[in-house]
Structures are given as structure tokens and as C-alpha cells.
Design brief:
Layout (H helix, E strand, L loop, with lengths): L1 H29 L29 E9 L3 H10 L5 H8 L5 H20 L8 E19 L5 E17 L14 H13 L8
Antiparallel strand pairs: 1-3, 2-3
Helix pairs in contact: 3-4
Amino acid sequence: MNTILKHLCGVGLTSNHVYGIHTSAPIAAWAKAKTPRRFLEYNRKIFPPQAIGEDPRPAFVCHQKTNFKYSPKKLWYIASFVRGMTVDEAIKQLSFVNKKGAVFVKEAIQEAQELAVKNHNVEYKSNLWVAESFANKGMMIKGIRRHARGRMGEVRYMYSHYFVRLEEGKPPKDYYKRNELTPQEQLDSWLEQMRKRKIVNSY
């Protein structure tokens, strides 16, 4: 009798365990993803064949580093710093930036450089430049900090995402396009504006 009961209990436990496994898929489908996935979909994009005489489309690779312990506000300055640089120049400059976030950005750029050569048909790994570089807020863990007189305060542990897109070729001379005119053209434009001024006497 005891053997039969043990056998029945064992079957019941096994069936419940299997039931839990099978119901976990629908629950996971509704669960919110903790890491961004849309940025990496650009790597799977297929472009149509180019026409004869059309400028060759440069190869590119998108890469991300997610949920590492660093403030997204601090990381934004480092991400903006390397925009428009060549890969070698960005890695060299980040080696001398005395900030914790520079290590994460440098690792992400080096990983993207390896992926470009390995998976995206880039011939020379030095022939790349940082076309996009930006940071975003990752997950946030809330904790409790004790204060005087038995009060409690909230402390937030911030995590960050970093995104980078490397493009084949040489970087533009003026990435932000702040002023496309040469110094002489700027001077001529300013003189033209000064000559066209009209003096109006108001009485």
C-alpha cells in the first residue's frame, strides 16, 4: 500500500512539474524584454542590387552593450566624444579617458570592429569610422537607504545601454555640419551681409 501511494505521489509531482514547463512559454511571450532588440535588426536588413554607375553602398555593422552598471547621463558624454572618429582614433582616445564608462565604450567598439570583419565582409578593420554612438537608460533597481529618526529614503541603481554603428570608409571632415563654408567663404558672406545693411532713421 505504501509503495502504491509513493508511486501515485511521484506521478502527481512529475505531472505538475511538466505542466509548469508547458505553461511557461505563454507567460514568457507576454513578459517584457529587458534588453533592446530593434537596433540589431539593422544587421539583418537586405538591400536591393545597386544600379550600374551608382556609388557603392558602404558596409556597416550595428552593435550594442546592454545593462552595465553606469549612469546613462555620464555615459552620454563619452558616447558623443567618439562620434565621427575613425575606429583606431576612437580606441586610442578612449584609452586615455579616465572614466569608468570609457572602458565599456572601448570594448563595444572593438567587438563591433571584429564583427564587421567576421560577419559583414569588411576587408580592412582599420577602414571603419563611428557613424552613430549614443547611450540609453537600462534597467533600474530601487533600494532603501536609512535616514535619521527611523525614516527611509529611496536609492536608485542605474544601468545603461550603449549603441554604436561602424561604417566602412573615411569619416566626413565635419560630422556635425556646423559650418560647411571655408574661412574665406565665411568672410565673403559676412562682408556681403554688412554691405547690404540698410540704415533706417526713426524720428
